[in-house]
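Weekly puzzle thread! Below is a chain. First person to post its structure in token form gets bragging rights.
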Amino acid sequence: MPTEDEISGTSKRRPKQSPTSIGNHKLKPSTLMLGYGFDPALSEGSLKPPVFLTSTFVFDSAADGKRFFEGVTGKRPGGAEGLIYSRFNGPNQEILEDRLAVWESADDALAFSSGMSAIATLLLTFVQPGDVVVHSGPLYAATETLIAKILGRFGVSYLDFPSGASREEIDAVIAKAKEKGRVALIYLESPANPTNALVDVEAVAAARNAAFPEAQRPPIAIDNTFLGPLWAHPIQQGADISVYSLTKYAGGHSDLVAGGLVGRQGLIDQIRMMRNTIGTICDPNTAWMLLRSLETLELRMERAGENAAKVCAFLRNHPKVESVGYLGFLDEGSSQADIYRRHCLGAGSTFSLYLKGGEKEAFAFLDALKIAHLAVSLGGTETLASAPAAMTHLSVPDERKQALGITDNLVRISIGVEDPDDLIADFENALRSV
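Winning reply:
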């Protein structure tokens, strides 16, 4: 006869560990996305994790409850040993976090309700009143607003360097920042949104390490949404935390909003404490949808990347196109090409298209699209196009937009998984309206 625990699916045995290798053969992330971190025996043999729609979890004993809370409150290292409350953890979120960490061989990961809630929680964890944040530019407009305007209300200041800055330029900015106060965080975005400019993460890490003794080094966090997790692994180049809008390629179907952080254990544990307090964890249904999406992430990104290469080859020589900010077109011998060679595994499928003209021409192009959708965001199965200067980066001051290359003739395009010849026909037709 089955026991009551077996009937209810709450067997006290530890979850069966998912294999990560077969003999000396290490399994690839794309394979691990289909089962890693989930033991079907603990969910009635279900092949896929159920959605755990509960706000709280029952303890086997009062001693278990105390031990779990000791972990979640930091009184005992290692975090919660079990499930407590859905503001802290849940089965869907924990499986998702296990799988997110796999892509970059990171120690751990955290899932959030949006990309911006991940970034906000990161900043709140490490930045105190009077501190200085060093960052690359441009950043996603909401990130810039959070650092400059919201944290600025609490005496936090920032200094930035252009995305393509050299080691010498980065050294100079860090030195100047140290004069202003405690440098709490170095925050990067590469490729930059929306210009596609790359940051030399290795140079930033070397500059940070040279400027601070080990015990005082500020963490390096990098928004890896545009190329990660398939085409860029910045933790390998010296970053401590990789930041994701999981809404984009990880979600990949334009039907959810979520964020993620992956990185070094000690830093992730600190951020988890802040997330536990302010409640920015993603919900179980969104986590479940992301688990579905991660199964096809490599397939989707590879197809979109192949499509982008074909579309950009067409756009590159069109008479109405000024230039195409596509990573596959970087000039050989340039600093950007050097960064790409050292840091990137692919050119991605999101790029900047500079039309000849200004806002009028950009709007005419966008309004004439038939297949590509006029919408913000990126990384979905469908092709999206938008005008950053008038939309996602509208709040950025005009002089800063000009300095960062966010011009009125810039159209940001995220290529999807449609037939590439159909997309080329769509863009060719839209360019006739310019």
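Puzzle host: Confirmed. Bonus trivia for everyone else. Residues 1-11 have pLDDT under 50 and may be disordered.
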